[in-house]
Amino acid sequence: EVGKIQIKITSLSLIESRITSDETIQQLFVECRLNNFLAEETPLSLPKPRGGQRIHYNYSTVINVDKEYNHAEREYLKSILLKPDLPADSLKFTVVSDPPEDEQDLECEDIGFAYVSLKEIFQKQRDIIEQEIDVFDSQDASAVIGKLTVTVEALHALRSVHEECKND
Fold first, then answer.
1. Does domain 4-167 have CATH number 3.30.230.70?
2. Would you say 110 and 95 are in contact if contact means Cβ atoms under 8 Å apart?
3. How confident is the model at residue 7 (pLDDT cuts 50, 70, 90)?
4. Every domain of the chain and the residues it spans
5. Measured by CB atoms within 10 angstroms of the end CB, which terminus of the chain is less buried, N or C?
6. Measured between alpha carbons, how far is 10 from 5 in angstroms, rounded to an integer?
7. Distance separating alpha carbons of residues 154 and 32, to the nearest angstrom
8. Quick check: 89 and 80 in contact, CB under 8 A?
9. What pLDDT, in 10s, does the model give residues 23-60?
10. In terms of C-beta density within 10 A (0-12 exposed, 13-18 middle, 19 or more buried), how is residue 40 classed?
11. Contacts of 30 (CB under 8 A, 6+ apart)
């Protein structure tokens, strides 16, 4: 679809790390963010998976980037395609620790980040379908703490934005 980016957060697995051994981290949800516009999160937080296990969110959402109503998002996509040095060219997925019901004084805490480059989808002319992407430790960007399986279908939207750039 030319006016939409489809996103699916399928599942999450963790490898042994400070996250798996931290008893205060029990429930996890995942947030997805496009630059500053929009954050969507899985409606459920699920029990933290043990090493080697996987928790399934099967959560799908759509980011609207049509010309008529979502001008800012569309301009942002244009800038991704036109400015090769723009650092923020990715969808950012954040794995968040949701405090247990009986510990409401604890805050939600970002424990890991994963990224899908929209620019790369356009360059390779290929959507990301059920792909495992690395989740990096929020406290140590070089450490991988797990894998998030996601789908990002953005190619049609990016192509139509690219056509527009040529016509501007």
1. no
2. yes
3. very high
4. 4-167
5. C
6. 16
7. 14
8. yes
9. 889 999 999 998 877 789 999 999 999 877 999 999 99
10. middle
11. 9, 12, 41, 42, 57, 59, 93, 94, 95, 96, 148
